Amino acid sequence: MILTVTLNTAVDLTYHVPTLRQHTTHRVTETQDRPGGKGVNVARVLARLGHPTTVTGFAGGPTGAWLREALSGEPHLKDALVPIGGTTRRTVAVVDAAGGDTTQFNEPGPTVTAAEWEALKKAYASLLPGAEAVALCGSLPPGVPVGAYAHLIREARSAGVPVLLDTSGEPLRRGIAARPDLVKPNAAELADLTGTRDPRHAARAARRRGARAVVASLGAEGLLAETPVGAWRAAPPGPVRGNPTGAGDSVVAGLLAGLAEGADWPDRLVRAAALSAATVHASAAGEYDEAAYRDLAARITATALPGAA
Ligand code: ATP
Ligand code: MG
Ligand code: MG
């Protein structure tokens, strides 16, 4: 199975309104509730692709119970979330039907106690031996040490399990120093990490800091990979209109699915680019448009870039 870790799980609420304006009362035309948090999105996409996937992280309170109940209906997905005394956060996305834009509100998440963090580390250590790969995704809730991902990466490495990190800021900086097999920053995260706006220079700098491979996601421009065996670009045929939230999570799912199936780098990148663009087509994070995915996977190619990595 593939293991995903979401320390800051969420229940994602989406409100659709005709036009979003300040100082106005809005009529909500449609409401959706979904299991959320970055690793949960990754897991839902992997499960829909048919990969056995296990979800760990924290869940608590009524929202945590709702999240677990919602995940229990997903084939191929196993819940190994660790219970906490606090209440799982909600996020609210308000979709403006007129402009198509999304306005996002994210709660910070419940404070995790030292004992709960210890329980997570224990659960993680017991899940690692059964994992083909592990993905560590998203922000850290209050109470979890800033070096949490660095710790989880070292554990995965000593268990011989390939580990992917998708986070930002200081947890990303510390995580990279622990030498993960792969990091998946977006353009802003990569620039913030390295101080360089040129994605290729920045990806190479991230490798020098300890990431074995870097796949940078560049929005509608697709993916840039810098790996020990070569560098590639893979881009969608053109920009897709839709909801880009969770597109990066689908990149992670595509890369992990390819890794688990023993695909080479160009093939992994094609899957990741197609799956993420097909996620922009779909209305919500953690979901993708199946027909668009198949069509895009047949049309996208990965182009090798000159120069040693
Ligand atoms: P998130 O964290 O919300 O999941 P992200 O900011 O990490 O997303 P992005 O770089 O925005 O990730 O998008 C991930 C990938 O999704 C891109 O590399 C690209 O392959 C695809 N993608 C994103 N936006 C578009 C778009 N408008 N058209 C086509 N593909 C897109
Ligand atoms: Mg983005
Ligand atoms: Mg992202």
Automatic annotation (TrEMBL):
Keywords: ATP-binding, Kinase, Nucleotide-binding, Transferase. GO terms for biological process: carbohydrate catabolic process; small molecule metabolic process. Gene3D superfamilies: 3.40.1190.20. The keyword ATP-binding applies. GO terms for molecular function: ATP binding; phosphofructokinase activity. It comes from the Bacteria. InterPro entries: Carboh/pur_kinase_PfkB_CS, PfkB_dom, Ribokinase-like, Tagatose/fructose_Pkinase. Belongs to the carbohydrate kinase PfkB family. NCBIfam families: 1-PFK. This is 1-phosphofructokinase.
